[in-house]
Design a protein that fits this description.
Blueprint lengths: L11 E4 L5 H6 L20 H4 L2 H6 L6 E6 L7 H17 L6 E6 L8 H4 L1
């Protein structure tokens, strides 16, 4: 390693926006959908055919990755978050990295809880 460089250990904490983006962007039968808000103008070109939050999290492997999720966040239901995270967990488990990923649910809203995530 060149002189002056410090080896860093990076991690990612996703707080407040980890969910099924396809449902979030395109659903017409969910109150969580962008179709009924000003966010419908966001540009998500071809996102549903190419990647979602789980696939973005795969880019972190083998680094630690955790999701910080408030039950009352209001951006997506817990089920959307849990299903998307299950795909991330599957990848970490199959690579023998189970100890490097987690999801922390807490009784709160759209905020950074930071208790288990910062530990």
């Amino acid at each position: 390693m060149p002189h002056g460089f410090v080896r860093a250990s990076y991690l990612s904490i996703c707080s407040g926006d980890f969910n099924d983006s396809t449902g979030k962007v395109a659903s017409t039968d969910s109150d969580y959908s962008f179709m009924f808000t000003i966010e419908c103008e966001f540009t998500y070109f071809n996102m549903s055919n190419t990647f979602n939050c789980a696939e973005l999290a795969y880019l972190m492997v083998p680094r630690p990755f955790i999701v910080d999720r408030g039950h009352h966040e209001g951006l997506a239901p817990d089920e959307w978050v849990a299903v998307e995270y299950a795909m991330v967990r599957w990848v970490y488990d199959n690579l023998g990295l189970s100890d490097r990923t987690a999801i922390e649910f807490f009784n709160g809203g759209h905020t950074i809880n930071g208790e288990g995530t910062f530990d």
